[in-house]
TrEMBL record, chain A:
It comes from the Bacteria. It comes from Drancourtella massiliensis. The keyword Membrane applies. HAMAP family: RsxC_RnfC. PROSITE patterns: 4FE4S_FER_1, 4FE4S_FER_2. Part of a membrane-bound complex that couples electron transfer with translocation of ions across the membrane. InterPro entries: 4Fe4S_Fe-S-bd, 4Fe4S_Fe_S_CS, Ion_transpt_RnfC/RsxC, Nuo51_FMN-bd, Nuo51_FMN-bd_sf, RnfC_N, Soluble_ligand-bd. Its EC number is 7.-.-.-. Binds 2 [4Fe-4S] clusters per subunit. This is Ion-translocating oxidoreductase complex subunit C. [4Fe-4S] cluster 2 binds at C376, C405, C408, C411. Residues 357-386 form the 4Fe-4S ferredoxin-type domain.
From TrEMBL, chain B:
It comes from the Bacteria. Signal peptide: none annotated. This is Ion-translocating oxidoreductase complex subunit D. It is found in: Cell membrane. InterPro entries: NqrB/RnfD (IPR004338), RnfD_bac (IPR011303). It is a multi-pass membrane protein. It comes from Drancourtella massiliensis. The gene is rnfD. The keyword ATP-binding does not apply.
Length: 439, 313
């Protein structure tokens, strides 16, 4: 079978060999743990503990702040030290619950669950929501909301996003190799919600070992299938992934459910399994620590809330003098000015790069070469949209579909003039979307 | 807070291609035909004209940007490319001051006064060639080869109405009168292949240009599908240099894929029209210049559909 893919995209140096073969290592926290109340898209969670309270590992410390929101759990047992603003990986300060670890890891009672044969759809959805699961690939959209489309019987494909197309990151890769059973069981749980759906594991073909493992595990499963994707960025983008698998295209004003699809990434599906089968809330995740500024790159399973400096230490510390540290991948991740931030539900990786490629180049004039058009998976004209953005021409920006940009950064990557195309387009896009809401 | 790291918007990595090395590759790709031209017209010291024209182009850009207190951009090598292309479009017999005048016109009037690299709406080298052609028609259309001043094969074909007096093999190799860089099809093709392999150009513009041109002269050329007539037309004049190196100029060609094909077709028709029915034997420069002017219009009607709105195919 040919490789499934989409048109456009780029082939950056993937840097995955640094951490690819490093098995997942568990790391225990030394210092305080910090739980931002907003680690997801939607309303911030509301604290239900006070300073001085004793909490247990797996105890809920903040309640969902609305339908599109998610509760927060403590990943250790200890004492609530403070509820105060703290820097998060995305750069801003967010109100956070700070917990002093007592080192005993005394567990709270788990969530009430029943065997998969008996459990109802409503119970599954409630468990996912109660466990505080959000899109752990980076978007942080509450999973409960994603899994509750208006017409669940019209969902034909549940796609496990096993592409992991961002360079350097290998967390999902290790998860697929080390916990494939949990991934498949997680898929089984999701399929219980959608009677007419098929479960598709969509894996890039640079992970043949994962493909083999998943194929072996799903060989007797009539409702599950493994498909091979071309290795290309942004193959794991939701719209690109759905198109590659189903040849159905959605634009910015549509949801995957509109074309009968639901997409979740590997880490999210494993947490769904953990919540529904084991009654465990979302309190840990696998994080890749990599880059040429890290002494011993690797993949680590860490409690949420752990300080990223501790994670760097677990990876042998910094090497050389990194110029740039990034939370997430190099294409869409956030550059951080400090490592004194907690690991959150959406922290898939920490990258330390000794060279800041962006700072080395000075943007120059567009030479109209068209490379950004070839790369744009949304089929836009990024160079032109960036021009409109730079002169605040909202009308032209909208007319040429600037809102369709998904901010994958492929245009900035390929631009020989080193223009900050994505940066200009995404800030204009935010303005346009905000103005639309006002109307 | 112990460390402070650089921050910037994503993405945090960049491809290796830069404007500078794209321009450098264009210069490298132009070397075969440049060196051939210098050798071919060695009796007229073509090398002096090439060097003077390139130097004048770079110097004009440098002085203008210095005087205007702008950032000096000669390092991006686009001025050198313009100078070289202009030199390749001049007859070896042209005096050195014509090269200088053309280079100043190309860089100052066509490029810098419109805002510099990326803003010019006409190919500077071609605009300068047309400027010189109009101003010094005699000198620009007098070609000396091997000590003899005579007509180019294209002009001979036009006068005779047949291809009896032209040698297509010599035209292919380049041992014919013409401008410094346009005569050798083989040297131009070596350069074109370099650009194609490096991914700097693709076949859309040159392909649709040449195919359309062949179809046009087959229909209207009066020789039907006569392969030697077509070959003579493809190997004569500036069509090869134009199709591979001038029509593909990023700045002055459409950015949309469909637009590039339409642009190529337009150039093919215009070139055929000028060559067969125009006042002179040659028409590539004017065809490309007119094509340049129509680029914004072509882009407007070929705006691609976004993904999810019909643009996924």
């Amino acid at each position: 079978m040919g490789l499934l893919t989409f048109k456009g995209g780029i082939h950056p140096n993937d840097g995955k060999s640094l951490a690819k073969d490093k098995a997942i290592v568990e790391v225990l926290p030394e210092g305080d743990l910090v739980f931002p109340l907003s680690q997801h898209i939607g309303a911030p969670a509301a604290p239900i503990v006070k300073v001085g309270d004793q909490v247990l590992k797996g105890q809920k410390i903040a309640e969902a702040g609305g339908f599109v929101s998610a509760p927060v759990y403590s990943s250790v047992s200890g004492k609530v030290k403070a509820i105060a603003p703290y820097f998060t990986p995305t750069g801003g300060k967010v109100s956070s619950i700070i917990i002093e670890n007592d080192g005993t890891y005394t567990e709270a009672e788990r969530l009430n669950t029943r065997s998969l044969d008996l459990i109802t759809k409503e119970e599954i959805l409630n468990l996912i929501s109660e466990a505080g699961i959000v899109g752990m690939g980076g978007a942080g959209f509450p999973t409960r909301v994603k899994l509750s489309p208006k017409e669940p019987e019209k969902i034909e494909y549940v796609i496990a996003n096993c592409a992991e197309c961002e360079p350097y990151i290998t967390a999902d890769y290790r998860r697929m190799l080390e916990n494939p059973e949990e991934l498949v069981e997680g898929m089984r749980v999701i399929l219980k919600l959608f009677d007419n759906a098929k479960g598709i594991f969509a894996v890039e073909d640079n992970k043949p070992d994962c493909i083999a493992k998943l194929e072996q595990l799903t060989s007797g499963e009539p409702r599950m299938e493994v498909v091979r994707l071309m290795t290309k960025y942004p193959q794991g983008g939701e719209r690109q992934l759905i198109y590659a698998v189903t040849k159905r295209a959605i634009n910015s004003s549509m949801l995957p459910a509109d074309v009968g699809c639901v997409v979740d990434n590997v880490e999210t599906i494993i947490h769904i399994y953990d919540a529904v089968v084991n009654g465990r809330p979302c309190i840990d995740r696998v994080v890749t620590v990599s880059g040429d500024g890290i002494a011993e790159p690797g993949n680590f399973k860490v409690p949420l809330g752990i300080n990223q400096q501790e994670l760097i230490k677990a990876a042998g510390g910094l090497k050389g003098a990194p110029e740039k540290v990034i939370s997430g991948g190099p294409m869409m991740g956030f550059a951080m000015f400090t490592l004194d931030v907690p690991v959150t539900k959406t922290s898939s990786s920490i990258l330390c790069l000794t060279k800041d490629e962006v700072a080395r180049y000075e943007p120059s004039a567009c030479i109209n070469c068209g490379r950004c058009i070839d790369a744009c998976p949304s089929r836009l004209i990024p160079s032109r949209l960036a021009d409109y953005a730079e002169r605040h021409d909202e009308a032209a920006f909208e007319k040429e579909f600037g809102v369709e940009c998904m901010e994958c950064g492929s245009c900035s990557y390929v631009c020989p003039a080193k223009r900050q195309l994505k940066q200009a387009i995404s800030s204009m896009r935010k303005t346009v979307l905000a103005n639309r809401k006002k109307k | 807070m112990n460390e402070q790291f650089n921050i910037s918007a994503s993405p945090h990595i960049r491809a290796k291609d830069t404007t500078e090395n794209i321009m450098l590759w264009v210069i490298i790709a132009l070397l075969p035909t440049t060196l051939f031209g210098i050798w071919n017209f060695r009796d007229q010291n073509a090398w002096i004209l090439v060097v003077v024209t390139v130097a004048a182009a770079v110097l004009t850009e440098y002085l203008y940007e210095k005087l205007m207190h702008k950032k000096v951009t000669i390092k991006d090598m686009s001025a050198a490319v313009t100078g070289l292309l202009l030199a390749l479009n001049l007859p070896a017999s042209a005096p050195w001051w014509m090269g200088v005048l053309g280079a100043v016109f190309a860089i100052l009037i066509v490029k810098q006064l419109f805002g510099g690299l990326g803003q010019n709406f006409m190919n500077p080298a071609l605009a300068a060639r047309c400027f010189l052609l109009i101003s010094f028609t005699g000198r620009m259309t007098s070609f000396t080869y091997d000590g003899v001043t005579g007509a180019t094969p294209l002009a001979t074909m036009r006068a005779d109405g047949s291809i009896a007096n032209v040698d297509t093999m010599k035209m292919f190799i380049g041992q014919i009168p013409g401008t410094i860089g346009e005569t050798s099809v083989i040297a131009i093709m070596i350069g074109a292949i370099i650009l194609l392999l490096k991914g700097i150009i693709d076949l859309r513009i040159p392909g649709s240009y040449l195919v359309t041109f062949v179809i046009f002269i087959t229909i209207f050329g009066g020789h039907g599908f006569d392969w030697s007539f077509i070959t003579a037309h493809l190997c004569g004049g500036g069509i090869m240099l134009g199709a591979w190196f001038m029509a593909t100029d990023y700045v002055t060609s459409p950015i949309t894929k469909k637009g590039q094909i339409i642009y190529g077709i337009l150039l093919g028709i215009l070139t055929g029209l000028f060559r067969l029915f125009g006042g002179s034997a040659e028409g590539v420069s004017y065809a490309i210049i007119i094509g340049n002017i129509l680029v914004p219009l072509i882009e407007k009607v070929t705006l691609p559909k976004p993904f999810g709105k019909g643009g996924e195919k």
